[in-house]
Batch of 4 targets.
Target 1
Amino acid sequence: MEVLSLGEKVKKRRKELNMTLKDVAGNRVTPGQISLVESSKSNPSMDLLDYLAETLDISVEYFMESENTQADRICEYFSEMAEISIEIGEFEKASKYIEKGDHYINQYNLILPKAKNLYLKGMLEISRRNFTKAFDYLFQCNVIYSTHNYKGSYIDNFMLVAKTCMDQESLPMAISYFHKSEALFVEGILTDEIMLAKVYFYLAVAYKKVGNLEKSKEYTAKSNEKFEIMSDKRSYGKFLTRLAEKNEMEGNFEEASKYAKMSLQIFRTCGEESEMAEIEMTLGKLYEDFERYEEAVIHFRKSEVLYNRNQEMLKEVNLHLAECYGHLKREEDAYETLNLLDRMILEEDFLGNIKLYLVKSKVESLFKNMRGAVNNLILALNIAREKKLKEEESKIMLLMAKFYLEKGKNVDSYKLLEKSMNIMLQEGGDK
């Protein structure tokens, strides 16, 4: 990665396109003028910059990006790679990325990237169990934030120190830093509800460890309240929308805008998750139709996670799962799923109960329990008759007719087929 001056960018792009100075100059300027720009001996006017961007097929913004901005962007990449390396335990690689970032930080005197690198050095030393050195780096990081009034950036430092202290059983210091984190929200410096919920959670745990049960209960309730709101994304989105409206009414447009963006992102995520859930569900059905039940189960389980709180879709997913488990001879999983469906489907959900009895019948048949299979068909048929669900009654009779035919009970089978046909004809006539 390299930081380029404007002239170096022009020259690099010209070389990429295999163009000569004369090619670039065209009839607009002289090759000498282009050469002066490339050697940084002359700054082009905006008209010439527009011409160069058009001729070299690249954006004006690319040419106008300052060296400091480029260095800042490169440092951001190195810091991201360093953090990833720490997370996966590749400490030497992390150290090298931090060193690469330091090179640009020192050359271009970058303030925020320097603070970020100090934070990463702290993380790295904590991973190596060098706590004194780690806290020194984090202190230096906070000095930069304080000097330049970046109060909102304190949170990562405070939380890292607090969690480290809690891991080392230095509980009073841990609690102190968790409260420093909480204060950022109380003072209105930060508004990230997810982070605040985490702060409450860790305070509840820390107070429990020191034996202060009243404080632990207080922060457990606060944490639970936040997480309850956030666990239902649509409700959380509405909550953020209300916060945006409240701030708008109070004339705090910056905060209102921030909450509005957060809310919009939540609703967009909900839409994407809904689409993915539908895709996974459909893939499951396709594999089920292809009799590739292992693959079907994988996709049904994925859709189950994505549907989360959509009870109706969760019922459908589990109906398919129970049957797939039956085909795979996974008896325990099949019956466990059927028991779950017994709890999910309410007594007054007549169509839901009919579907459940039909799946139960199929599963019992797959496990060679023919009496159980027939009994569940009869239970489904009774509901359909009692509630005058003619279409379902006809379908169930067809299933029973097929069952009796396979058992050699031709007379019973034909009677059921005849009744089923009569219902269908009657229904067709009514329509």
Target 2
Amino acid sequence: MAKFSVIIAESSNVKIDSINQCVKQDNDFEVAVVTHNANEVIDLCNNTQADLLLVNHSLFETQDLPILISLIPIHTKIAFLSDDASFAIEAFDLGAVDFLLPPFTEQRINKLFDKFKKLHQNQSAYPFKQIQALLNKSHEPQNNNESIIVKDSGRIRIIDADEIIWIGGAGNYVEIHLAQEARPILHRETLSTMLEKMASHGFIRIHRSTLVKKRSIKEVQPTESGDYLLTLKNGANLNLSRRYKQNMAEILN
């Protein structure tokens, strides 16, 4: 049987060494990678498909923790490390399998591993890694009538293109804005790739970081800077930059 892979994200080398020694004593677990950098955590989890992430919450801003949860693989469980006992409630609210305060003794790490293994056994009928494969497949070109598959706060969501009104981009991620929901959904995909998928559904690029569905546009107004202000049917306002003026013809058609 393959060992469960563990990622340790912690700023203290002393604590990392302590955890490492405990992991080495358990035949069911192995450390896949160690990082001190919060910016690496999401990519490391996705690249290694780790089973368990041990992460010190202080590496992240509090408001960024739900984003972390939503962007790591759905089968990757999280145990938070902390020097602050008051964070425990929030940790479990975020769906953590455990919450650890130092010292990280072998006995305490073994207790965590026992919790993880029991949880894994209880969920063995639920194909987390198969669902993750669906998420990875969602990065491939889709037919017009296929939906977008995204992970949202630990859930798998299947979103019809008709539900989406505009998409904002930031690096390797996009925010998907839906007609009936105030909160956008964060999705790991580039804006260019999303445009390839969504162009056939009536989406055009109006800014280097914005796609919009033509049918969702209510009003177009020129601005003094030479750009345009688009008002959507849900009341949102978006800028159409001069660089994408050529797309005005698509909007008006």
Target 3
Amino acid sequence: MNGQAVALLSALQAAGVHVALGAAGDTLELTGKRPPVALLDEVRASKAALLEILAPRAGDMLPPLPWEDTPGVPRSLPPVLSTDPLPGHLARLVSMAKAGKLPNGTAKLASGIAPDLGVYVLAWAECWPHDRAHVLQRLEEAHAVTVGV
């Protein structure tokens, strides 16, 4: 990984700028606050390195969750995982996160701050079968800040 590009992403985040891949995967989308001119110039100069860092790699995608109907994907779970589904309201929260429909940016939760609510929800959902009580607590906190979304 390019250290300068990682440092640039950190500087952009500190400035309130969120950087993501464009839909085609060959452009960058900057949202949030307008970056300072010096950072914007650095983004332009480092575009290739930023695209390389942000590009998905094999294994980055989360497997389909058991409570979602995904066409063409079998609904079976690996044998080590439990088949107990998340409660309905939390399953909908995870589905919204996967669809990118949760509010962008930082979220203040009861236990702290989530820099990106969608990523936070998906990361905890991935841990569901292994630590139910803790995952339920974290997802309930995320759900509390999304009520009405």
Target 4
Amino acid sequence: MKNRFLNLWAFTALIGVFALTTSCSDDDNTSGGTTEPPITEGRYITVAGAVMGTTDPTPGDGNGGTIVYAISKENAKDPSKTFDVFENGFAVPSNRTARLQSSQDGSTLFNIAYTGTNGGEFSKYKVNGGQNFTPTGGVVNISQYAGTSPRWVKLYDGDKTGAAVNVTSPTVVTNADGSYKHTRGTATVLSLDLVNSLIAQTKSYEIALSAAEEAQGHHIFRLDAPVLNKAANKLIIGTWMRKTNPATGTNESTYTHLGAKSVVVDYPSLENPVVITSTVGFGDTSGYRSFNSFVGDDGNIYQATQRDASGSHILRINSSNQYDNSYVFNLDTALGLSGTYIENWKYAGNGKAVVAYTHNGSAVSNLSGQSQSFLALVDLTAKTAKTLDLPYSADMYFFQYQGYVVDGFDVYVTAAPVGQDGRIYIINSATGVVTTGAKLTNKPGNHFIGAF
């Protein structure tokens, strides 16, 4: 009996210690009242670099293909380590800069080749470290639906699905009397089964604006950066708008933009396209080569604008899949600058995000002809932004950047001037503190385009 009581006491004490340890662990996973995003132990940080083209090359054009190299998280954080991605990495199949995505845990890399004979070809790889990327699953070509230069992203649904979008070249349509009617292209929306490497669903349709807007010549030039809403029943797709001159039938280079627009389709059927319009932002919502919309912890979708006359905005789309025009976040105001332009960005949890931007007055690189880029930590709730402390250069730009890794409070980003060596930097999304990680060796004309 005595031994039973002793064992019971020991067991109870052990439970108490375990509970205390667990409690301390929970405390360690918070910072300033925020909850730390998930951490993946033992993951790789895959660094991607874009090679300068060989035909009429311009430094930083990225037209010579894409090289990737996987670095352990521990080594990525170590400033004493050096990695030569371009010399030792794996060439991802793509004629120009590949369009890359990765699984949440970094163990799988997804690629769709961009242009060329294999343009539109989807493939995936197991990430094994260094240049060791093992093909897995089948290969499927989506070019017959989405073209050889498809815009696509991975949906945040447990790495199950990708979504590709495309619009054929918009054409002018006239009335029977020869007067201008509208300009439209045929849109295609495609869902891609990432697990089984096959096309799950595809729909094509013309997407009309209002009669008044179309009569003025406004039309959708490009679709890009789809995002799945929190309810997983709607896909919200960004747009890049253009305008035809009704009198001449040619595109107008300067005009007054409409309110920022997105296309909402049912999911997973991809049917019933509806256009929604913001009265806050007046730019495009398509982004460029990366995600441009994210579902926040509050369930709202946050979406950046580009080519916005009053500077880039971050817009909010609510659970009813409509723009919340009561939410006003102008990056010009937040940073005290003018003409800000969000090149790409990444939601990091707790209402925080890392934003790559340029602005009026940014230095223009004599090497690449691109405007200098900067990184800022943004608080979507407080509507504030602060430029992060990095070794900036007139030759550093993030316009073609594609990937950031969020692992707990750590946001991994690669940064280097075009053709110069750089570093992996780790940004603490809770504090904004930037620490220096491994060195990345570069080559003339090349630049780094992401961490995955």
